[in-house]
Amino acid sequence: MEINIESQLQLIAELPGHDERAWQVAWNPTKPLIASCSADKTVRLYSYHLDRQDSSKTVFSHVTTIPTGHTKTVRSVAWAPSGKTLATGSFDSNVGIWERREASDDDVDPSESDDWECVTLLEGHETECKSVAYSGTGTLLASCSRDKTVWVWEVQPDADFECMGVLMEHSQDVKCVAWHPTEEILASASYDDTIKLYVDDPSEDWYCFATLSGHGATVWALAWAPQGDYFASSSDDLTIRIWQRTAKYTWEFIHQLKGHDRSIYSLSWGPGKGTRDSLGWLASTGGDGKINVWGISQPSQQGSGNPTLTSRLVASVSSAHDVHDVNSVQWCPRSGFEDLLSTAGDDGLIRVWKVIPSSIRE
Q1: Which of 159, 189, 206 is the last residue in one of the domains?
Q2: Whether 195 and 222 share a structural domain
Q3: What distance lies between CA 63 and its chain's CA centroid?
Q4: N or C: which end of the chain has fewer CB within 10 A?
Q5: Other C-beta atoms within 10 Å of 248: how many?
Q6: Distance between CA atoms of 81 and 334, rounded to whole angstroms?
Q7: Is the pTM here over 0.90, yes or no?
Q8: What residue spans do the WD repeats cover (predicted)?
Q9: Are residue 94 and residue 222 in the same domain, yes or no?
């Protein structure tokens, strides 16, 4: 790994409001909105826009707080690709599906989007729901739980959902689910130290086609590369492993990153902005309170040697939420904002960071 940090993470916004720890943050893929969820059982929405006087600055403001009605911690939040629907996963074992009460034109100021209602409550998990995720097409929703199961739901019209499969492949608590960006391939990570990959068999049901081992402890997080040929996993073993697709249904370990002193709870892989890193930027965070941004590249191959990856630490910040654990990191997916990432911490705060060249840091 190359150590030559040419950039910094600049704190550009602090979004308070949660009364207890903030678990996860999610950028809306189509609209200037951020959602956050918390142990206080609420979801908070914030809007953002470029400052009219200084287009290099982004201004954030609170839009609304959704009192979800979940009876326990809201652990996970995820937007559908359309940006019109929000899913919440809770320790009360249920998954909530949220939509704006009054649909309106996409041009309406998101600050007016303050009336959200639960249109569906998905029941089935026996205990705490840990993660929810929409597929790239928005036609499927996955959820996972401490009950060791992964559920796959088909999204149907009029906020109707049909369970397509209950996958019982893990032997312990399932921490995370993540969809391939363009294909209907699902990955899950677990307390049993493994990663499972699933696909739908048209003549049968959803099934596990691969189990990836190598981590020496709980696997907390997964993040697919934007192109989909790689994904990253992070663990209690203090490592990040990158897996490469070598055949249609085969992924192999290819690269390892080390840079954290405690459990790595969250990963996000974005395209990067103005970067020479061909595979984009991978952000990581966790129990040590540090955020690392790694540039990942695949050098042009010469000869017939095995493909390799190179990584370099693009930016890093310690004590990102002071003394508190950082539970979530996510890159903004919207065009023009690829250098923004947000974090959620045990201090109940959402913080927004921008990758900037070290030479222009204020």
Answers
A1: 206
A2: no
A3: 22
A4: C
A5: 9
A6: 12
A7: yes
A8: 15-47, 67-99, 122-156, 167-198, 212-244, 257-304
A9: no
